Amino acid sequence: MVSRILRPIALGRLRLAHVDDAPVIMNLVTESMSKNFRIDDDTDIVYLIQNCVLCICQLDINDSIVGFLAAKDYPLLPSVHPRAWEEYIWTKYKSIELNARNTLFIHLLCWNPAYARELVDSLLKSMFMHDPYLQHVAMLKPLTSYPLLVPGQSRSEASFRRVQAMERGVPGEMLPALCIADRAEVSPRLRIRRAVPAPGPFRRARPECQMLPALCIADRAEVSPRLRIRRAVLVDTIDDVDVGCEQRRTVCLLAIFL
Predict the structure, then answer these.
(1) How many Å from the N-terminal Cα to the C-terminal Cα in the chain?
(2) CA within 20 to 30 Å of 125's CA: 54, 62, 116, 134, which one?
(3) 55-104: per-residue pLDDT in tens?
(4) Cα–Cα–Cα angle for 145, 151, 156, rounded to 5 degrees
């Protein structure tokens, strides 16, 4: 007997989080998420919703919360002052492309395990769409014993690139990992250009007047030229060639259709 694969409910819209969503969001937090983001109860989630730069909820088509993301403009490092994180990141991780103007740090990321990368990418794309100057979304994982937010779902975090800290005499696997999601990989910028007419049967009337509304004309001669109709000519005989009766009939028919 073949077991049926149960697909999760399709994703719906995104919206900003409210304080009333805290109990539902708490049910999505796994042990690994709780340890990495230091979430113990609903009050921690309420604090994030009230103080984070951006808090987004991912809903399904039934308007049930299946994912949540909270971000601030400094990393989750209690030992580093919020205004001094740039030097720490540049020194420890050599990620000099991160700065206070183009980077936000995730302080909580949780989702329903029935979903995978599609949901995480949807939350990340929403962050990039909210802020056109945002280029990087980073996340620090201080505990090496919990490398994945959802155990067994490494693909869910595939949009993040992992950067190891550099410390003399300490292996990189024993130090907190920095995960970075870049706009170019998750939500690339769209290039805006002026619209131009595609090559086709239309021609522009008075192309020198660029400031006036364009009038495009399609000519019959270019699209559907008229067919020349003539009267069919029947060839009765062929004088210079001696052919038989059956051959003469075949030549006549060919002359009509050609």
Answers:
(1) 66
(2) 62
(3) 999 999 999 999 999 999 999 988 889 989 999 999 889 899 999 999 99
(4) 115
Residue 237 and residue 52: Cα distance in Å, rounded?
98
- Model-wide pTM > 0.85: no
Single residue among 162, 186, 210 that ends a domain in this structure: 186
Q: What CATH number does the domain containing 51 carry?
A: 3.40.630.30
With residue 71 as reference, give the H or E element that holds it: strand 65-72
Q: Which domain holds residue 206?
A: 202-257
Clarify whether residues 105 and 209 are in a common domain: no
Q: List residues bridging with 149 in a β-sheet.
A: none
pLDDT of residue 120 exceeding 60: yes
Which residue in the block uniquely carries the two structure tokens 């003399």?
168
**What total number of domains does the chain contain?**
2
Tokens standing for residue 144: 């090496």
Domain boundary pick from 160, 186, 212? 186
